[in-house]
């Protein structure tokens, strides 16, 4: 119910933003940032409510993961919309809101059962909480980078493309260390604690590594690329597609240790 | 000559080479993530088109992560990383202190140590699985003896596991191993412990050399509360301490092992891997004494023995009953069991359902014995991997997190 209200708020925010995105002049509307913030707070309340019910941080299922992702994305959208200097750029929060709405739509689909289930022994670990939360917070920044990279790729105005390139880079540069810590390092530490092995080339691990390698390649390629290179933003788009495949595709198509996640 | 080495040095430290190697590693990983790994060649021939299977097998994409090409690219990447780190580090030292940025250096050094630790782990890591019932023991590396004092299994109301927990005692100076004697049950002597050596790759106490049964006094069906595990013949309860440990179990240090909470000892760690039940058959003699046998165990008699070979799941007996240490008979589809019976030198294979006679015994039914699955892991790469992780985290955050202000600027 709480997640549904949050979904409604984000949907309303999206509708309001559409009007402003296509207006040639003027800044960010004054309502949608607060709708994003309210949606984020509601989703956080939902996570806390479920956590109290299972007496553990509710981050152990697909529904909870999607709610967490949407929650932090909503907070980041609010930050992007609220802070003065990005008010002029309405398209990136708009694109990120679309993705947040998609996450919540998926959360309400049969793919993500919302039953509240306490975790099985392997999932009862603080390292799991760090692993999942850091990974998703990193991916929230990748989402902004993804939207910005699309705009960078399709944009025709050189100045705007430079501006998008800067936003893309800073998003990835912030998300990258958080993702590295969460997906690879905390994940490996948790695996060692639970199974006695750091790395087992499980499909989820392999695809998380592919995501990391792609973003690492982006960060390095950006150092040596030509400023007009379209491969740089393309790498960010590919990285996000791989990150989403790691999250959804691996769960449904490839079996492994993470089949419950 | 110097020009050649300069060129080589510059090539090996170049960021462009790093990008190419990163993309190559990603492509290999994608192949390994999509193509099922470690199957027989016939699997790929069957599931992929002619040229597809040929490419997979020729490029060793059926075992990408141990293939020559992947290892070669990884090795070049390691060299690139090392040369680049050396070059960067020496350049940074020539800069004024306030202009130095050591985040990338920490990150790269962390990755190098991580790679080294990973190689060491892959070369030296050993993992041995042991299945222990309450009271069972096993030898650990270095000669210490581990005794399973207790095991707990909790379930959620929906049947999913809530927790697996083993309590173990460690005897660091156990007496030397002695061959397990075969005891005649009429003698009333204590059983031997099912002990096994750590080096045994098939380490499984349940099927170890100590092939004699556990026993418990007969319990009438009117007293169903009797324990399923005959602890009176187990370590620390009914055995002379010389057979199990140098000191009584109660005086040994005890540790709890849970999933996600391994026991760290010097040189190795013990992990709670699983919990399961194992079916044992229960035999009852004329005196009403019960004997618990798992597959491969035998009970000797004055004219031979009865050996429980296996469960016969192909056939169920309608008149079967489940023996749960004296529980009331339950009519259910319980498999029969196959025994090897030796009487006066003559051996016969007997298939029996609960309630039937086997030599001097009555086949009293089955009991589900809880078994704790533990993994004993030794990993020399552990400190390197852990150090690598710390440096990578420090390096990656120092390098990039300062960009946070940029995203909102």
| Strands of chain A, count | 0
Main sheet properties of chain A: none
Total number of strands of chain B:
15
Number of helices of chain B: 9
Overall, the morphology of chain A is flat
Strand content of chain B: 25-35%
Write up this protein:
The complex is a heterodimer of chains A (261) and B (409). With 261 residues, chain A is mainly alpha-helical. Helices cover 74% and strands 0% of the residues of chain A. Chain A is built from 8 helices and no strands. In chain A, helix 1 packs antiparallel against helix 2 and helix 3 packs across helix 5. Chain A starts with a helix and ends in an 8-residue tail after the last helix. The relative contact order of chain A is 0.10. By secondary structure, chain B is of the alpha+beta class. In chain B, 30% of the residues lie in helices and 29% in strands. Chain B contains 9 helices and 15 strands. The radius of gyration of chain B is 30 Å and the shape is elongated. The two termini of chain B are 50 Å apart. About 20% of the residues of chain B have low confidence. At the A-B interface, helix 5, helix 6 and helix 7 of A face helix 2, strand 4, strand 8, helix 8 and helix 9 of B.
